[in-house]
Amino acid sequence: MLIRILKNAWPVALLLLLAFVQAPPKKIRLYLIGDSTMANKIKQTFPETGWGMPLGTFFDSTVVIDNRAQNGRSTRTFLAENRWQPVVDALQEGDYVFIQFGHNDEAENYPDRYTPPADYRKNLIKFVTETQRRKANPVLLTPITRRKFDKDGHIMETHVAYSAVTVEVARQYKVPLIDLDKMSRELVQQFGVENSKLLYMQLAPGDHPNYPLGRNDNTHFTELGARKMAQLAVNEIKAQRLPLAERIAKPLPKNAVPPPAGKDAQPTTP
């Protein structure tokens, strides 16, 4: 009799157990739209690295990074080249869109990309409102600083007008703001005039075969610089307690040994 009762009871017990087991969160996509400071790079330009490239390493497997940022694009050219509409069409409820422009919008010497502040504002609003209509989550980011010091070794602001517009739009439309301009200036100041060269594409002749003549670039990042900038964004996601913070990867237990990379694995930013 007891055996028969137990046989009949175990399916019910199993169902009750499953009811209390929390279903894993569904996967979401984190879209990145912006310029070369964020974009994916090809191996011929290595060690240049967009900060969107290492970003995925900070999240667990429920976050898929979809990096649509492109070299040389302003908000105006990103829209004119129809790079935004495919993102809108693909957005699902709960997805995120990180929006970071400004470098090329402010380039008055390049009329093919320059966008006046008033138009820049309109374009940011378009990105924000169309993301919200799809029940996805827009996040505005101010443009990352260029490496520029005054004669006393103090970091200088290089995106004053366009960062201010970004902050204003975020406040008006009540969307999260990650002030990468301010945070990256603080980081570069901490590194100082000489050590900050490690963050940017400052290469002497012979440092890398891709740049036999060297490179003097205070805008684009090395692997180290890209990882540091991505880390700033992730730290701010935590600080603001955005729901996305729940999907940040948990640290490995102490003394844990990471699994070896496969034989076909490519070098990546840690």
Instruction: Please provide the ordered H/E string of secondary-structure elements.
Output: HEHEHHEHEHEHEEH
* Name of the CATH first level: Alpha Beta
- CATH topology term: Rossmann fold
Mean pLDDT: 88
Question: In CATH terms, what is the architecture?
Answer: 3-Layer(aba) Sandwich
State the end-to-end CA separation: 61 Å
Lateral strand order in the biggest sheet: 2-1-3-4-5
CATH superfamily: SGNH hydrolase
What characteristic shape results from the CA principal axes? globular
Helix content: 25-40%
The number of helical runs is 8
Number of strands: 7
The whole-angstrom Rg is 22 Å
What is the beta-strand fraction?
5-15%
Quick one: biggest sheet? 5 strands, parallel
SS-based class: alpha/beta
Number of domains: 1
Low-confidence stretches: 261-270
